[in-house]
Amino acid sequence: MEPWEAPVRLLPLPLPPVHGEVFGWYLHRLAAANHVTSGQLAKTLTPFKNALIGKRTDTLWRWTPMVLPRLALLTGLTHETLRMLLPAISRIEARTGGEVIRYRRRLYVACSHCMHRRGITEPVLAHRPADLQLCRRHGIWLDGNRQYRVSHLPELATAQHRHRRIARRFPDTLEAATKEAQHMVRSWLLNKKQPHLLSRWNDRLAQLPPKEAAYENIIRRRVDEREFIATYPEFVTMLGMVADPTWRARRAPRQWVNLSQHRRTIHAAYAEAERRLNVPSLRENRHSRTFFNDALFRWTDSLGRSLMLVMSPEDHNALRDDSQWN
Predict the structure, then answer these.
(1) Cα(322)–Cα(286) distance, rounded to whole angstroms?
(2) Which has the closest alpha carbon to 278: 170, 220, 200?
(3) Cα–Cα distances in Å, from 37 out to 24, 57, 114, 216?
(4) Which of 193, 194, 275 has its CA nearest to residue 238?
(5) How distant, in Å, are the alpha carbons of 162, 209, 258, 267 from that of 297?
(6) Mean pLDDT across the stretch 163-179?
(7) Which has more confidence, 287 or 234?
(8) pLDDT band, residue 323 (cuts 50/70/90)
(9) Global pTM?
(10) What is residue 324's predicted lDDT score, i.e. its pLDDT?
(11) Long-range contacts of range 75-83, CB-CB < 8 Å, 24 or more positions apart?
């Protein structure tokens, strides 16, 4: 009789998984608590020999749906609970049903304070929803390999609350809009041509702790981790605009438009962004040729229609002229 054919008994220490936990990570934690190897547990769950599973393993391509009932017997948890807590289980079942599975791996280390409350002293690797950036209970930033304490910056918690509302309202455009909003905010940060925003961001950067515990062997370091924390509220503000299908529909259409119509579209986009960000102007360099490289201008005119419409130096001036923008 093969191990996966033998009757399954409840483990002495049937630890429940953390919500969204990577399957391999959970199996290693469960094995360590019960003084067996992860390979021994895997062989009782899946019908193939020489089952090896790493801590970051989560795709489980050779596994079958029989893992769910057998894992339920090992842990004493219901099928519904395991489906909810372990994303890999749902993917195994969906793949068996012939569904095309596409998912983006957003991994994070669960809040260490929350884990200590559950008696877990080691890091836990889990899947992160797109709108989860910090633990609001403990004020810990989670999106990175360092868990910064940011409870003294209440605007971050407010921004995450808004981020979740945006994710619920605009699920179809969220992924594309997230990339676009991140590009805008990072561009404004690096080119240093938005003094009103730079002042806010520098203030937040100065308030961030210089050092925090790092999980360098678990999570890849973001090169802009501290900068992303500082700009997060403004990122969420722009996300609410660029994810909105109404504003996306107002961008330069594919059919030919005249310069006057397109100028009004650009003005409306800037006016709305300035209102949402609560800044006097985002058009500090509208008289410069580099204004056409501004991230919001490029988003409004992603196909470069404005430059195709320009026929003369007067047309260039029309896109920048103060009297035409107001």
Answers:
(1) 9
(2) 200
(3) 12, 15, 26, 25
(4) 275
(5) 24, 35, 17, 10
(6) 93
(7) 234
(8) very low
(9) 0.83
(10) 44
(11) 75/10, 75/11, 75/14, 75/15, 75/16, 75/30, 76/10, 76/14, 77/14, 77/16, 81/16, 82/17
